[in-house]
Amino acid sequence: MAKQYDVLFRLLLIGDSGVGKTCLLCRFTDNEFHSSHISTIGVDFKMKTIEVDGIKVRIQIWDTAGQERYQTITKQYYRRAQGIFLVYDISSERSYQHIMKWVSDVDEYAPEGVQKILIGNKADEEQKRQVGREQGQQLAKEYGMDFYETSACTNLNIKESFTRLTELVLQAHRKELEGLRTRASNELALAELEEEEGKPDGPANSSKTCWC
Amino acid sequence: MVGFSKVTNYIFDSLRGNDPSTHQRPPSEMADFLSDAIPGLKINQQEEPGFEVITRIDLGDRPVVQRREPVSLEEWTKNIDSEGRILNVDNMKQMIFRGGLSHALRKQAWKFLLGYFPWDSTKEERTQLQKQKTDEYFRMKLQWKSVSEEQEKRNSRLRDYRSLIEKDVNRTDRTNKFYEGQDNPGLILLHDILMTYCMYDFDLGYVQGMSDLLSPLLYVMENEVDAFWCFASYMDQMHQNFEEQMQGMKTQLIQLSTLLRLLDSGFCSYLESQDSGYLYFCFRWLLIRFKREFSFLDILRLWEVMWTELPCKNFHLLVCCAILESEKQQIMEKHYGFNEILKHINELSMKIDVEDTLCKAEAISLQMVKCKELPQAVCEILGLQDSEVTTPDSDTGEDENCGLAHPTSAFQSNTLPTLTASGARDDSPTQISVFSDVSRLTPA
């Protein structure tokens, strides 16, 4: 059977409630958009395989509830992530201001070296804009992140931003991945390696099953 | 005796044919993880000596359970006296538990089931009550309605509640005819009731998930005031789930784990080996009482059955056990890991049969009620310790607990591990340990 992917990464979507995290995810994985999506309770995730630099990357994207009350729960998923989308809504000044708080949570709970990217979503809602493009760029620069304005509704910069974060994660793990292209049989999965730490007898291939 | 509180090895039931060498996560680690996940959770074994060590219990055969037709309008009407009091309340609740309510009856009966109307009230008294509650509702509604924009600028909590409510109302059951389309009047009602609830309980305010609990109530009541008071009653039951510390969620996850361990310790061990022993994948089920897991009409049925508070306390946890039991085979055979378990459970949404699940959950409850050596912790959870369950002969002197008038307090002060008679004598490797300190996590 052909190998389905070379490497598995976990990405995480965080940001205030209603900024469009689930919509970004659905647009990316299923190319669907529903303006009246249901709110996320707890956590959920979707998978998609993309090819970057000739490497088949399976990405597992975790979607979280935005309300502060649930952060004690969602924070538990930070430590499993290699890349994080920090999402605000360009029509909500407040969601932009909260990015600071989200960044400090990431610093506290995510593993060192986690890759971050800033997303200003709902770019199609120009008439309701409260956060200028340059404000987004400025903030991203401060934190040393890449920045995209996206629209799940019009499919603006969705693929680009997901691919970019995946590239960043790949780059960050370049060393571990060096042998990958030369050794076709090596089914290295970074995410798995990290998960298996501390439980050496754990099942080896469980997260490789494809259920999509 | 301290050693008993440190029993950490769960052994797969050899009959289930699992490989005992598979890595298992000891409960101490699980406790650490859970308390990590939910700060403030106290299940550290060092601090909580109240462990109960029991031999695997034979729950006996599971009875076959039959459900009945929904209670009809005629059946309901027959049980009302000339002044409008409901007669034979226990019998009525039994019938509702067995079959639910026909839809035409819900608008009336839910008010009683939820405690908005007392069962023994006369029609006259209820008219009075409704009048008073209507005034009270509109007084509270006026409170937020009369806050000016300027005032709201200086009230960040109200602003935050409003913004969350607006967001959530727009994404609550929008595929249901009652709430679909732009400018649906149902959405305004949802919004106004939730805003008014913030005035009713400003400390809690609005927390995501609450719109899910309100939506079926408003759908059935078709009336703003009645829906509000039914919602307020339902929230009395569910309040702890939404509090800052999420105490209700912590308690329920631990209680569920206790029940599941008794029913199927092999499955529990499997989940632990997959870093899923804290059952976090059941979070959504518990937070909003399965609202997202069943179709809208099935939720009406499931909720009215659960509101009867039959056949035991925390029946909804047995509903969890029933669903998990049905999924166990697939989870274990396909060797699902942490991710797959969460994904599998999330994707069960809208695929679970409500009547089958209720039959199974009731059958489990009957099995437990009949069981003569039910662990104390399980009795506590199901509220069975007074009469139904007695511990068999015992030379440890612990069985008196079951007959005490206030077993909870006696239980709480018990600092030594409780041993069932057979557990104390039997060194068989199929010992399992049960958290017996669950009640400590439930505020009085």
Break the fold down into its secondary structure elements and pairings:
The complex is a heterodimer of chains A (212) and B (444).
Chain A lengths: L6 E9 L5 H10 L12 E10 L2 E10 L6 H4 L8 E7 L3 H5 L1 H11 L5 E7 L11 H10 L3 E4 L8 H15 L1 H4 L12 H7 L16
Parallel strand pairs in A: 1-3, 1-4, 4-5, 5-6
Antiparallel strand pairs in A: 2-3
Chain B lengths: L26 H11 L13 E5 L17 H6 L10 H11 L3 H11 L9 H23 L3 H5 L2 H14 L15 H16 L9 H12 L2 H19 L4 H17 L1 H9 L9 H5 L8 H12 L7 H19 L4 H9 L7 H17 L5 H7 L24 H7 L4 E2 L1 H5 L5 E5 L9
Parallel strand pairs in B: 1-2
Antiparallel strand pairs in B: 1-3
Helix pairs in contact in B: 3-14, 5-8, 5-10, 7-8, 8-9, 8-10, 9-10, 10-11, 11-12, 11-15, 15-17
Descriptive account of the structure:
The complex is a heterodimer of chains A (212) and B (444). Chain A has 212 residues and is an alpha/beta fold. Chain A has eight helices and six strands, in the order E-H-E-E-H-E-H-H-E-H-E-H-H-H. Chain B is built from 20 helices and three strands. Chain B has a three-stranded mixed β-sheet. Classes of the chains: A alpha/beta (212), B mainly alpha (444). At the A-B interface, strand 2 of A face helix 7, helix 13 and helix 16 of B.
